[in-house]
Amino acid sequence: MRVREKYFFLKSIVALALICLCLIAAQWQYNRGVDRHARNSLIEANIAATNISLTSAIIDLKKNEWRTVSTTGVFDASQTILLRNRYFEGKYGFEFLTLFKTSSGQRFWVDRGWLIAGKDALTAPLIPSTPTGEVEITGRLRLDSSLPRGSFFALPASGLD
Hints:
By secondary structure, the protein is of the alpha+beta class. It is built from 3 helices and 6 strands. Strands 1, 2, 3, 4, 5 and 6 form a 6-stranded mixed sheet that branches.
C-alpha cells in the first residue's frame, strides 16, 4: 500500500467513526426531547388539576408533583435556611426555606420565596417574620432535584442574628 492509500483509508475510518457518533448523539437528543415532552405534559396536567390534600398527594409523590396541595400545621422559625446565589430578575439573592410540621407530624421544607441580597456579602437580607400558631398553607408540591442533598452552601437563620 502506498502512503496516499493509507491516508485515504485512515480518513475513511475517521469519517465513519464521526458518522456513528453523530447518530448516537441524535438518538440521545431525540430521547431527551421525548422525556421532556412527557414531563411537561405531566406538569401541565397537574397544574390544571384540582386542589388536593397533602395526605392524598403523598401516596404517589412523583405522580402528584406540581399539583396544588393544602395542609395545616406550624412553621418552625428556628429551622430557616437561606440558599445563596439564587438569581431572580437580574439580581442575586437567597431562596428562603422554612421547615413546616403538619398536624399529622410530617415535616418538609416550604419555599417561602426569594429575598434580595444585602448591600454586600456580609449584610444579611431582610427576613420576613414567620407565621406563628397553626396555619393552613396551599402551594405546589415540588420534588426539587436542583436543591443539594446533605450538606450545602447556605446560611442558617441562627447565623443572621
